[in-house]
Amino acid sequence: MGENREQETCCLENGAGVCGCTEDIPSRPYRMVLLGAPGAGKGTQAELLCEKLKTCHLSTGDVFRAVKCRDGKELSPAMKAALDFMQRGELIPDDTVIAMVRDRMSYLSCEYGFLLDGFPRTLYQAEALTEMLSSQALKLDAVLDYTLPPEEVIARLSGRRTCRSCRATFHVIHKPPRLQKICDKCGGELFQREDDRPESIRVRLEAYNRSTAPLTDYYSAKGLLLTISAEGSPEEIFNRTLLALKEKV
Ligand SMILES: [Zn+2]
Q1: Which residues are placed with Cβ below 5 angstroms of ligand 1, an ion?
Q2: What pLDDT does 82 receive?
Q3: Quick check: is 121 catalytic?
Q4: Phi and psi based region of residue 57 (left: phi greater than 0; alpha: psi -120 to 50; beta: remaining)
Q5: Which one of 21, 73, 179, 199 has the largest count of C-beta atoms within 10 Å of its C-beta?
Q6: pLDDT tens, 32-50?
Q7: In the 8-state DSSP scheme, what is residue 73?
Q8: Residues 6 or more apart in contact with residue 140 via CB below 8 angstroms
Q9: Is 193 a catalytic residue?
Q10: 53 CA distance to ligand 1 centroid (A)?
Q11: Options 31, 121, 156, 240, the catalytic residue
Q12: In what order do the strands lie in the sheet with 225-229?
């Protein structure tokens, strides 16, 4: 498993944007987009899906983090531009995000398929993705949208506690520390981040819903949208996902 992870990371960090997969090719490649509100557990589902379907996971969050630690010389013009926006604390504009994904075009045509996470975020980006794929005679198989009632999102996220010293995260119900308010790993003090307060979560959720509604409409009209309930355990959600995929693809 550890080795696979490393290869997946290569896909993202390789300067040329060349996919580094070497495993046997699966019976069919899946090309998918993941959507889901914060707290819906999309990241866990992405990991499980990659394992099961052997697709490459392209998370723009990972790409952006990689950009931050990369030496300036290795950055493509799009990545340099993105870094400038990030350093100014600004949102990365659509065209820059699209250029970064375009840098990784070979990744999108990987014969293992792909799982996009964090892209597209806007309708404009979604239309650009459709164009990029059709220029390679490719198309999406499905868009997985993980949904969770707002109250459930708030219950999940507001239980999170973070260590002041090592940044490890715990959850008061799902992953409690051995000692109350004390980090298992380093003994540091656990606290609730500003972002994890119910009021902040509500604001984030509203922003998410506003920006995602046009996307889900777009993919629904194309017959690609699979809405999956993110209630229950990661295994239950994953089984639901496989079932929905089996019916669709
Ligand atoms: Zn700690």
Answers
A1: 163, 165-166, 168, 183, 185-186, 188
A2: 87
A3: yes
A4: beta
A5: 21
A6: 999 998 889 888 899 898 8
A7: G
A8: 31, 32, 33, 129, 130, 133, 219, 224
A9: yes
A10: 35
A11: 121
A12: 56-59, 113-117, 30-36, 142-147, 225-229
28: Cβ contacts below 8 Å, ≥ 6 apart: 113
| Residue 197 known to be catalytic | no
240 is catalytic: no
User: Would you call 5 a catalytic residue per the annotation?
Assistant: no
Band the pLDDT of 20: cuts 50, 70, 90.
low
**Catalytic one of 167, 193, 202, 222:** 193
Spacing, Cα 169 to ligand 1 middle (Å): 8
Segment 160-190, tens digit of pLDDT: 999 999 999 999 998 999 999 999 999 999 9
Give me ligand 1 centre to Cα 30, in Å.
38
Residue range 115-127: mean pLDDT, rounded: 91
pLDDT at 38: 84
Are residues 159 and 39 in contact, defined by beta-carbon separation less than 8 angstroms? no
C-alpha 109: how far from its chain's center? 19
**Do residues 19 and 112 touch, judged by C-beta distance below 8 A?**
yes
Average pLDDT for 212-229: 96
| In the chain, where the domains are located | 2-148+231-248
